[in-house]
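Subject: Sanity check before I submit

Could someone independently write out the structure tokens for this chain? I want to compare against mine line by line before I put it in a report. The sequence has 117 residues.
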Amino acid sequence: MKRIVLKSKIFRATVTDTNVDYDGSLTLDGLLMREANLIPYEQIQVYNITNGEIFTTYLIKGMDNSGEVVVNGVAAKKVSSGDKVIIVAYATMDEAEMDFFTPKILLVDDQNKITSR
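---
Independent answer below. Compare away.
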């Protein structure tokens, strides 16, 4: 049996900008992507802690150590700069894979710098 499990999570990231005139996606600090085991164009879900909105999009790699969390396209209407969000990615695994898998979970500060892994 296959199950969908949490693969990666960035908890309490701060949205740094929005750009509604872009073709979708979320631009994310490249260091955060690597540390969370995320890749460009990977599907993610975003949970807006500030207003309760939830949306699905994909990632674009931003500059390393930039702290950027930029929501682009129509999803930009679901957030505001300064909102706190949870960024997650899921993976499909069989039960044998799950026995050896641990998700990457990062906690970040207000400048989107990693405080806990």
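---
OP: Matches mine. For the report I'm noting this point. The radius of gyration is 14 Å.
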